[in-house]
Amino acid sequence: MALTKKEIEKIAELARLELGEKEKEKFAEDLSSVLGYVQKLSEVNIEKVEPITGGTSLESVMRKDDETKCISDSQMREQILRASPNRKDDYFKVPSILE
Amino acid sequence: MNLNVLTIKEAHKLLEKKEITSVELVKAHFNEIKKRDKDIRAFLSLNEEGALEAAKKVDERISRGEPIEMLAGIPAAIKDNISIKSAKVTAASKILENYIAPYDATVIKKLKEEEAIFIGKTNMDEFAMGSSTENSAFGPTRNPVDLERVPGGSSGGSAAAVKAGFSVYALGSDTGGSIRQPAGFCGVVGFKPTYGAVSRHGLIAMASSLDQIGPIARNVDDAAAVFEIIRGVDELDSTSVSPATAGWQDYWDSTLDIEEIKIGVPREYFIHGLNPEIEKNIKSVISKLEKEGAKIEEISLPYSEWALATYYIIMPAEASANLARFDGIKYGYSTMNKEEKLQSLLDVYLQSRGKGFGTEVRQRIMLGTYILSAGYYDAYYTRAQRVRKLIKQDFDHAFKEVDVILTPTSPTTAFKFGEKTQDPLSMYLADIYTVSVNLAGIPGISIPIEEVDGLPVGLQLIGKNFDDVKLLKIAKIIETLSK
Fold first, then answer.
1. Which domains can be identified in chain B, with CATH numbers?
2. Chain B: nearest CA to A60, how far in angstroms?
3. Is the ipTM of this complex over 0.85?
């Protein structure tokens, strides 16, 4: 299972990661070796085995929306906004999305 | 009196009897940090002023004759992926280097209600991805037992802080062994509770179906004391379970009789790759237990062989999804240019994430992205979830026969820096005995036993779902026996 440089570039694009040229080679090598290892699972007979989809058997846990909690805390709200790299008043400022 | 080796219980008694003050206790720990942490580097940030202020409050209560909580006035170190309001929380990543937590994690809220004292935030592998703390963006932590060696990881800073006498106990997080393995490497106790026993609200997520917060402490009693405070249902973590559902007992209520205990020893954990000296020490504990009347049974966990491969599919898949939130837009490191109007949004994503994440993190995001991409999802992810089911069934089956399962925590003792950083697979093998526990969602604890060549050895005990208290009680018996 060897990934090509082109495949690495495709995955990096999907993952929204910019990689250096040298890194692409290193990642191709390391990812191929990990993927080679996990191929081991093809030895296991999984017919008729239902997949586990999470860490518990709890289902559809609900809670009430309660505006007195969390974000109504004005100090917290300000701290969250202050953490943004680019802000205008109470908004997050982002580069234009449409080309 | 050496205040840097006290257990929680000892410190609590001394505080109650007014033989020491919390301020003295806190100062003793900061003195030790100032002396030795420039070499060990267990901490990413310290909270000296805040800690002393909190300690004074506890001392005032004591001097007024008020009763105090078990953890009140006692120093704790917190892994830097757990949020404390208004303090930096970095996950040891450049992408969160200047991020200030806007709220308390639920475990922190609970510790604050106890008037616990937060000494500082501990170093770790970036986003908890690693087994040595060598992946920290801010430099590795050194093992207090031998500075040439790693403390394990990812909660390496927490384990080192407890071992070095920088704090009485610590919180860590465990996704595939990140509490138990460093506890083993540093010679302290590390406990990963049942999945759902402790709320993860406020923990920076890595792999959500595996992550769990737990204590690192000097002995089993202390781990139990911290666990009993932090456990419980939380509406902010929908995977947390109520104590009633869990059927929890109280650790302090009664002790277990050794003759009532049935211990399973899985033959798959004692094969190739295990250091023979570690095996010898584990086996000597087993024969001691048998001599004292415990029933020892050889068991089989046939799907153990595929646990690590299963883990290295599920973990990166979930991590790649969780880490998608770091986009350079809402918080954290960003290449967004405030002046330039023509910057493209895609470039902000690519560059912020490309520069903000370290190598191992990017590698796991890439791996997860590939595994979850169209055409590969079933071959990798669904297959791994099915094998995960088989691994869980192995344990379900075993626990019909035995109360706990006894294994080594790690196949080796603490290794030297750089020994495993070149080849990711060799690093991943450090978790071979611990990952199954996370895949099955069950509790596990590592306790120190007899050393090998002056280096700590961890013994792992694995329990049934929500049998955390019984697991702790049996761990206590083994701890007493191996002293």
1. 3-251 (3.90.1300.10)
2. 9
3. yes
